[in-house]
Design goal:
The chain has helices at about 5-15, 100-110, and strands at about 20-30, 45, 50-55, 65-70, 75, 90-95, 115-125, 130-145, 150-155. By secondary structure, it is mainly beta. A nine-stranded mixed beta sheet has the order 3-4-2-1-7-8-9-6-5, covered by helices on one side. The longest helix is centred in the middle third of the chain and has 11 residues, at about 100-110. The termini are far apart.
Length: about 180
Amino acid sequence: MSVPHNAAWEEAEANSTTDFDVFVTLELQHPAIQDEEGNEVPARLVHDVMPRSLGIEPGGLFNPGQMATFEPAAFTSPFAELSQGQIPQAPIAIDNVARELTAYLEAAVGYNADLKAIYREYRDDDPSEPIYGPVEFLISKAKVVGSSVTGAASLSNLGNKKFPRNVYTRAAFAGLVR
């Protein structure tokens, strides 16, 4: 069973204004992704043909509130399949990065940690902060196939999200007090 809002979502995107371009990004986080000094760093990718300098939200794990460079890469992921009793998962493919990410994937086998993918969208007229996201996904079953890296993306820690997310306190919502 596919996601029921696919057709409506596609229609809304087709009918929306095109006064600006949207940059779609992925930030891969794992302890095996390190710089030359051995510090953990993210692998930042933008679905574009050239590098982009984009702002990280103030609550980000790496470079919060700063501009960061995202490297060009092609990646795809259809909507997740929804089934009763199953955690929604979507296949994800990142093309033409196997050479850059293979060393990190091989090193990741030695760590007991999750590979996280942070999804964000930015407007080209104001790249200082995301217009959508960050949305955190866990990547499982990652493998190299040709020059692509494939895996399965699922929402991070979906079962432990509190509902409702807002905490209504008297201090924040004075109208609750009678």
